[in-house]
Amino acid sequence: MSQALDGMQINLSMRDIDTTLVLGRTLNFRQAAAQLHLSQSALSTQIQRIEDALGVRLFDRTTRTVRLTAAGEVFMQQAAALQVAFRDAIAAVSGIASAEHGQVSVAALPSLAARLLPRVLMAYRQAHPQVALKVRDTLSGPAFDLVRAGDVDFALTAADPQHADLHYQPLMSDSFLLLIPEGHPLARARGPLRWADTAGAAHVSMVHPSSVRQYTEWAFLQNRIRFTPAFEAEHLTTIVAMVECGFGVAALPEIAAGAVAQNGIVQRPLIGPVAERSIGLVTARNRSLPPAAAALVAMLRQYLAEEAR
Question: Which residues form the HTH lysR-type domain (predicted)?
Answer without folding.
Answer: 12-69
